[in-house]
Specification:
This protein has 589 residues and is of the alpha/beta class. Helix content is 51%, strand content 7%. Residues 147-349 form the Methyltransferase domain.
Length: 589
């Protein structure tokens, strides 16, 4: 409650704290931040997040039990209850209405000023003069959706440019999945690539597809040879694959161990095949790693290694991006790192502030963020995964359905607190319910966009009634229909959890209690989503600052400081296509 009431004062405070933003009125995606810039932005974001902690640390499923609407300024509710669905969908992107109160507009605008400017622009051309988006062959495109094609085309082009600059001998695609990026790098650009993933099935899929591609490229190579075409030989080797689990939150030595072992092999193919013959889904054996590599033996392995690597990660989940950055700093033979992070909800976080021996965390990485003393937690990291760009294009009908589902789930959580309090504390997962009902509803009703003006000034709950209720129902019948939905949803949730369902009368009583506040769930969700880009920016700036600190604080002449250059944080992909579009690029001289 106090957090919301301080909004007006906060706006004034933030004006002075965000004075540093006058250096760059709106984040430029091409700007190279100095360490001082990064620290200044992190401090401004921390001040803003602390003021609104009640909002981003909340869990929407607890909306009714924790009475979360009470943490929001009453003036904000006055404006948000009158907002149209389209207003709510555009809220996370920073669009406000002139008629809204100043404190609400200041909240949204401040959040926008602190979030990364995520639209790709001239940044790639500035870093790589003459760079243009490459086009991969139709054969390599097979199996990829439009999003994956967009990502792989751009990222592979960037990696290819860096490969020569960094004088690398091999690319390691970390968290390669089904190997699309690795295959484009190998077949299209002729780069030696190892596709590294924890899942043996992914390696098998990559290998099978690579074999089909090899036949095509071998045939093309023979034709070029017969026609005496003077052109670089086509790489028909394809990427190698390795199955190796880089564990989260345990040891930062595992990825360096993999690289050193890879470099010491005379031939990589037998090594990779041996791992599958052993039936061990963790190449090189977990038993050989745990507790067996000390600093001296690790250094000895590194001195023997003659290879140099680029670590590449396309949406490396959770701690994996953090591990790649640590490995880049730690290992001299890692000449460059290019990583686009993802799944912040899987990050391990040092919440207690005490670093246990051998324990590594994905957040925070930098000393600067550690000194700020702010803990995000799982709910904030979940929120950082939200996409403001996709919210504005989700469509009114889908938005209404999502809001309704959140209200039903929050109502079920209240039921759990009342009748199964121990289970409620564990916040059980019930999956996505109501898909069948939604399909029936879609068939029964004409598309909402053809009957409702999205920009109308009527309240969003009236739009909901138009969209989701059968025609010619009285208000009482509409209420009964919503109540029946809640009973149906709750019964299905109990069944999913293997619990006996409560009597319909008990569930109906709960619904009658919460029904007046259900219309607030959608606006509350949209309001929280405003903070998503700010939280993602906070996590990404922590990673950037971590690399900047290595240059700043590591003594000259030590192994870890050799050749470190200023890292870059750039918008690489179109956020409307790929919401997690920010890449961290660092290259050693």
């Amino acid at each position: 409650m106090q957090a919301a009431s301080n909004c007006g004062r906060m706006a004034c405070v933030m004006q002075s704290r965000i004075g540093l933003l006058s250096l760059f009125p709106k984040w430029s995606s091409s700007m190279e931040l100095t360490m001082e810039d990064t620290l200044g932005l992190l401090h401004a974001i921390t001040t803003f997040l602390r003021t609104h902690q009640a909002l981003w640390s909340a869990h929407v499923v607890e909306f009714f039990y924790d009475r979360l609407w009470e943490d929001v300024d009453k003036q904000w509710w006055t404006d948000l209850e009158r907002a149209s669905i389209q207003d709510l969908l555009w809220l996370p992107s920073g669009r406000v209405q002139d008629t809204w109160c100043d404190s609400l507009k200041n909240f949204v605008r401040t959040a926008q000023s602190l979030a990364l400017f995520r639209q790709p622009g001239e940044n790639i051309e500035k870093i790589f003069p003459g760079f243009c988006k490459p086009k991969i062959s139709n054969l390599l495109r097979q199996g990829m959706n439009a999003k994956k094609i967009h990502e792989v085309e751009l990222l592979s082009g960037v990696i290819n440019r860096i490969f020569g600059e960094a004088h690398a001998s091999q690319v390691v695609d970390v968290g390669a999945g089904q190997g699309y990026l690795a295959q484009v790098l190998a077949f299209e650009y002729g780069l030696p690539v190892v596709a590294l993933d924890a899942c043996a099935h992914h390696a098998d899929v990559t290998n099978r597809r690579s074999e089909r591609l090899k036949k095509h490229y071998t045939s093309c190579s023979k034709k070029m040879s017969q026609n005496s075409i003077t052109k670089d030989c086509v790489n028909v080797a394809g990427p190698q694959t390795a199955t190796f689990r880089v564990m989260s939150g345990t040891s930062q030595m595992e990825l360096p161990y993999f690289l050193s072992t890879l470099a010491l092999q005379k031939s990589s193919d037998p090594m990779m095949e041996a791992a599958h013959k052993r039936g061990n889904h963790d190449s090189f054996g977990r038993a050989d790693i745990a507790g067996a590599i000390d600093q001296s033996s690790q250094s000895e392995l590194m001195n023997k290694a003659q290879h140099s690597y680029i670590l590449a990660g396309l949406h490396a989940c959770g701690d994996l991006s953090a591990t790649m950055l640590k490995t880049y700093v730690m290992c001299e033979e890692v000449r460059a790192v290019v990583t686009v992070g993802c799944c912040y909800n899987l990050l391990s976080e040092n919440c207690g502030g005490v670093q246990l021996s051998g324990q590594c965390y994905g957040f925070p990485l930098s000393e600067g963020v550690k000194n700020l003393g702010i803990t995000l937690g799982r709910r904030a990291c979940d929120l950082a995964c939200q996409s403001a760009e996709r919210w504005k294009d989700v469509g009114i009908e889908s938005a209404l359905y999502n809001f309704e589902q959140h209200a039903l789930r929050a109502g079920f959580q209240l039921v759990l607190h009342r009748y199964y309090p121990a289970l409620a504390k564990s916040n059980p997962t019930i999956g996505r319910l109501g898909k069948t009902r939604r399909r029936k509803q879609t068939k029964r009703h004409v598309s909402l966009e053809s009957t409702v003006n999205a920009s109308c000034s009527s309240s969003w709950q009236c739009v909901e009634e138009t969209a989701s209720q059968p025609d010619n129902l009285s208000v009482s019948n509409q209420m009964q229909c919503k109540q029946n939905k809640f009973v149906e949803f709750t019964s299905a949730a109990f069944q999913r959890l293997g619990l006996p369902c409560l009597a319909a009368e008990q569930l109906e009583a709960v619904w009658e209690e919460i029904e007046p506040k259900t219309v607030l769930v959608g606006p509350y969700w949209s309001l929280r989503a405003v903070l998503g880009p700010v939280l993602e920016t906070f996590i990404l700036l922590d990673r950037l600052l971590y690399l900047q600190e290595q240059i700043q604080f590591v003594p000259e002449g030590t192994d870890m400081s050799v050749g470190l250059r200023k890292p870059k944080l750039i918008a690489l992909f179109d956020p409307n296509v790929s919401p997690r579009n920010m890449a961290i690029i660092a290259v050693k001289s």
